Amino acid sequence: LSLSVRRCVLSLTAGRCGSSVQSEAEMGSKRALLILARGAEEMETVIPVDILRRAGVKVTVAGLAGKEPVQCSRDVVICPDMSLEEASFQGPYDVVVLPGGNEGAQNLSQSPAVKEVLKDQESRKGLIAAICAGPTALLAHGIGFGSKVTTHPLAKDKMMDGGHYTYSESRVERDGNIITSRGPGTSFEFAFAVVESLMGKEVADKGGKMMFWPKKE
């Protein structure tokens, strides 16, 4: 199956896709902002968006560079709902989500706009969730210093540079208002951890059961 960047565009914009999921989500009071940068990891983007929307969270996928389709790390192209510039005026959000992907994380780390969003979220004690290499953007922007975090193993040294965090080998780690996770294979656990933080354990467990997601004992 070829997912050529010239032929395949994946839209997460519910209105354009005609999805009933977002109409359900719009009834909820919780709101999430996922920042999508070029080179983001596809699974770490789509899985959290899907699971959060199923749980009734209204999710905005904001393109870092604008409204145009974004080429991800495995050449899947995703259409954001709007630009980050637009989305930043529609806050506040209950959670800001940062996908991983090496190039994507670098782009997040270098963006003054991302820094502004994260600093505002942190100042309001809002939830911040980052996965894989995504947590390195927290380091770059001075977010959550002193927290216990996890990353993809290849991002560990970079994350620990400067000694601003305590490192965890957990698949998902939550410390205060910071949730971090390890990589594509932990995307479901990561997303359900965010749902549990926003909506409660009962909602997260129900969502997992409906999706046949194995409950870890």
UniProtKB/TrEMBL annotation:
<keyword id="KW-0395">Inflammatory response</keyword>
<dbReference type="GO" id="GO:0007338">
    <property type="term" value="P:single fertilization"/>
</dbReference>
<keyword id="KW-0143">Chaperone</keyword>
<dbReference type="InterPro" id="IPR050325">
    <property type="entry name" value="Prot/Nucl_acid_deglycase"/>
</dbReference>
<dbReference type="InterPro" id="IPR006287">
    <property type="entry name" value="DJ-1"/>
</dbReference>
<keyword id="KW-0645">Protease</keyword>
<dbReference type="GO" id="GO:0006914">
    <property type="term" value="P:autophagy"/>
</dbReference>
<keyword id="KW-0564">Palmitate</keyword>
<keyword id="KW-0449">Lipoprotein</keyword>
<dbReference type="GO" id="GO:0005783">
    <property type="term" value="C:endoplasmic reticulum"/>
</dbReference>
<keyword id="KW-0278">Fertilization</keyword>
<keyword id="KW-0558">Oxidation</keyword>
<keyword id="KW-0256">Endoplasmic reticulum</keyword>
<dbReference type="GO" id="GO:0006979">
    <property type="term" value="P:response to oxidative stress"/>
</dbReference>
<keyword id="KW-0378">Hydrolase</keyword>
<dbReference type="GO" id="GO:0005886">
    <property type="term" value="C:plasma membrane"/>
</dbReference>
<protein>
    <recommendedName>
        <fullName>protein deglycase</fullName>
        <ecNumber>3.5.1.124</ecNumber>
    </recommendedName>
</protein>
<dbReference type="GO" id="GO:0006954">
    <property type="term" value="P:inflammatory response"/>
</dbReference>
<dbReference type="GO" id="GO:0036269">
    <property type="term" value="P:swimming behavior"/>
</dbReference>
<feature type="domain" description="DJ-1/PfpI">
    <location>
        <begin position="30"/>
        <end position="196"/>
    </location>
</feature>
<comment type="similarity">
    <text>Belongs to the peptidase C56 family.</text>
</comment>
<dbReference type="GO" id="GO:0046295">
    <property type="term" value="P:glycolate biosynthetic process"/>
</dbReference>
<dbReference type="InterPro" id="IPR002818">
    <property type="entry name" value="DJ-1/PfpI"/>
</dbReference>
<dbReference type="Pfam" id="PF01965">
    <property type="entry name" value="DJ-1_PfpI"/>
</dbReference>
<keyword id="KW-1017">Isopeptide bond</keyword>
<keyword id="KW-0539">Nucleus</keyword>
<keyword id="KW-1003">Cell membrane</keyword>
<dbReference type="GO" id="GO:0008233">
    <property type="term" value="F:peptidase activity"/>
</dbReference>
<dbReference type="GO" id="GO:0006508">
    <property type="term" value="P:proteolysis"/>
</dbReference>
<dbReference type="InterPro" id="IPR029062">
    <property type="entry name" value="Class_I_gatase-like"/>
</dbReference>
<keyword id="KW-0472">Membrane</keyword>
<dbReference type="GO" id="GO:0005739">
    <property type="term" value="C:mitochondrion"/>
</dbReference>
<dbReference type="GO" id="GO:0045121">
    <property type="term" value="C:membrane raft"/>
</dbReference>
<keyword id="KW-0963">Cytoplasm</keyword>
<keyword id="KW-0496">Mitochondrion</keyword>
<keyword id="KW-0694">RNA-binding</keyword>
<dbReference type="GO" id="GO:0005634">
    <property type="term" value="C:nucleus"/>
</dbReference>
<keyword id="KW-0007">Acetylation</keyword>
<keyword id="KW-0072">Autophagy</keyword>
<dbReference type="GO" id="GO:0036524">
    <property type="term" value="F:protein deglycase activity"/>
</dbReference>
<dbReference type="GO" id="GO:0071542">
    <property type="term" value="P:dopaminergic neuron differentiation"/>
</dbReference>
<keyword id="KW-0865">Zymogen</keyword>
